[in-house]
Amino acid sequence: MADSKALTTRAADFSAWYNELIARAQLADYSPVRGCMVIRPNGYAIWEQMQRALDQMFKDTGHQNAYFPLFIPQSFLAREAEHVEGFAPETAVVTHGGGKELEEPLVVRPTSETIIYAMYAKWIQSYRDLPLLINQWANVVRWEMRTRLFLRTTEFLWQEGHTAHATEAEAEEEARRMLGVYRTFMEDWMSMPVLTGRKTDSERFAGALRTYSCEALMQDNKALQAGTSHNLGQNFSRAFEVTFQTAAGDLDHVWNTSWGVSTRLVGALIMVHGDDAGLVCPPRLAQYQVVIVPIHRTDDERATVLEAADRVRRELAASGVRVHLDARDGMKPGAKYYEWEGRGVPLRLEVGPRDVAAGSVVLARRTGGKKETLAIADLPARVHEAMDRMQAELLASALARRDSASIRGATKEQFLAHVEANAGLVYAGFCGRGECEADIKEQTKATIRVLPDEEFRSPEAPERCMWCGRPSVAEAVWAKAY
Amino acid sequence: MADSKALTTRAADFSAWYNELIARAQLADYSPVRGCMVIRPNGYAIWEQMQRALDQMFKDTGHQNAYFPLFIPQSFLAREAEHVEGFAPETAVVTHGGGKELEEPLVVRPTSETIIYAMYAKWIQSYRDLPLLINQWANVVRWEMRTRLFLRTTEFLWQEGHTAHATEAEAEEEARRMLGVYRTFMEDWMSMPVLTGRKTDSERFAGALRTYSCEALMQDNKALQAGTSHNLGQNFSRAFEVTFQTAAGDLDHVWNTSWGVSTRLVGALIMVHGDDAGLVCPPRLAQYQVVIVPIHRTDDERATVLEAADRVRRELAASGVRVHLDARDGMKPGAKYYEWEGRGVPLRLEVGPRDVAAGSVVLARRTGGKKETLAIADLPARVHEAMDRMQAELLASALARRDSASIRGATKEQFLAHVEANAGLVYAGFCGRGECEADIKEQTKATIRVLPDEEFRSPEAPERCMWCGRPSVAEAVWAKAY
What domains can you pick out in chain B, each with its CATH number? Predict the structure, then answer.
């Protein structure tokens, strides 16, 4: 953390800013293995908070965790035609084990539908075994050509939910429910507004009937797919013969869903809230929500201040605040401020001899504004208030930024201008044809992020496809994306 | 769970009992991938409780979590001579990625010393960066010939701690501290007594200076290595050039430790406490500590009983008990008892119409003994008492079993008889020579589990090696082992 050079600004070079922020805050590092990253303790602590919150939400909606093998026989991947086409080109393949060449190569899981549904075929016999609601926290590998820390790496960490249902309607309901869980998590915990909706066929998960997505807008006005939920229909249950006896005594194939979010969310968090001083972490996901920096010159002052600071620390911890007292010697308060700002700690409390004498501390917010002097007596309540307010304000300002970067009912010319200027999201009519979509992508690099759910649609449905002028079948949201 | 055939008894065939118990309780399953298991939700829930407890203990001792790549360049493994010799024969090797043959094959991590210390070389510059105390929760792969669910599988889940220190003494202290953490966890959470001590050179971790181990005795009188902690000396820091500037301004190599426990602990839990009816789970690690089974015949009874049972459930949950109300219809109470016994739930509460009228419930313990009628009024306190008592009693009875299966100061003849009869642990003198150790292993299959720490040693130090009669250099504990 000795590096005191300012970060490249977001305005000057967003991508350089992103990489420098991650290095400065020690969130992650490049590894000697091509395309693989190391998640350092400061970054992993954010992921742990995310995991904890999501895991509770999954359990509250009836899911249980399990663990399935890392390796998948190559032949399994081939059983679902679209799936193998989508994933085979980006797999890592184990050909040797225990010093011998394997009879059948093993793929390192890029996702686990095939191995999991092979097990479900064994476990599910009757409608009484349904629904089966399982989640897995795991690492997966997809051989990527261009990698970026957190956003796209050869190996990444994620969770993948896999469920089996007796009816199509139940599977659809589950896929939508989990999309809602993701949206709630992203809004309430990450303070990150997302659009939800359906993906077009070209962006659909390989093997799914329908893919739903949460899409977020980053500060460089590029969209990021933050989480997806798939209604898999009976595609995999047919490929893996996952059948069940219905209540009526017939034999039917189950209906599956799968859904996942990954360590990519840490990248999203950085790009939604970070500023030119470094990371800005919403309080609910911060490893340390409050850092206390003692200020003292003489040894006497030091003893008094540290004692008071530690009392404050204990009181805050007892009230459920994740708090750290930075008692390092040989480092000036200013250097500590700088370091904790870079790491995104929401609140800083400064405690000096005069504060101790007055029974108060000074509160500084990571998001700026005037410092405030607070009485130690009611500190826990005030800190919780400040955190709640920051959590809400971060969401509100990200929302305002997204709205101001969105245009609706765009003509082709407006669309081209908006995309060319990297100005954000475009809502417009779409004819539903893959040709149009492909043409737009080729000419502008913009893609349809989602066909938005009702609550995100424009008040008036567009009449014509923005690109070809044919009748519109659905409003679409376009943007350049990560 | 429809299977109502009794398990093979432990006495008849311990190994068959173990496998049947796992299947019956749905803890794990065989997968289509050679040597890899599936950890089913009931088994994973135990692992999650273990993780939670251990993770908190690691954090309380100053460690942070991080994540390092799954893949390790083959050349990295080769840098530490003993390490490559120990692990290379059992690796899985990725030779192809993204459809192309790789220039350098990648090994799927069998353990992460090499990749982690390569990163430490980058992160550590000065004594101010030390100690560096990092833990990783991860999957690892070791190509095993003979596999057994939880005990020995090609892929398994574990944690691996990796630390760097400025002095040999600090590394030694850390290695011993984490051995102590493991022992505390095994005794206090798993109710599993362990012997701690040092491994002989033949059982030392490949690349370590010294390996310490926690060894437990299973009910079939075989020992199981439950966790290890290694003082790695400067072996890896020399191989990976992990150097630091000392306070005096010199350049020195850091001193490393590593330590790990794995999903093998779930297997240990089964074999230490299980009985012929199935799993017996110590309360602190049970997914459900209490299951409530309602008993009713008429619809009226059903409504009354379920309402009371749910009130009990809510009260227990509010007092911090992990409790489940088994309200399934179409299943007799006896069938439910049988199922929850198989799954090892510590306490069962039976609630019938007469209990509701009397304001009481009936408590049955998984470990047997008379059922007890308890007033609902002070149920939470009584349940917590019963759990604490069971937690302690399980430890005490495992300890008594181990003591009665141990002989001390054995002669060669007594040793041979004890080992031949699969009667447990033998404490005896050891000359310290590898030849003796190898000879004993070849003739009897018994190995030295540990050179025990002081608190486990016999009151009188043995004078002669039990096997060859040369002077003893240390007391040793022998047993057949998993």
Answer: 14-273 (3.30.930.10), 288-385 (3.40.50.800), 406-479 (3.30.110.30)
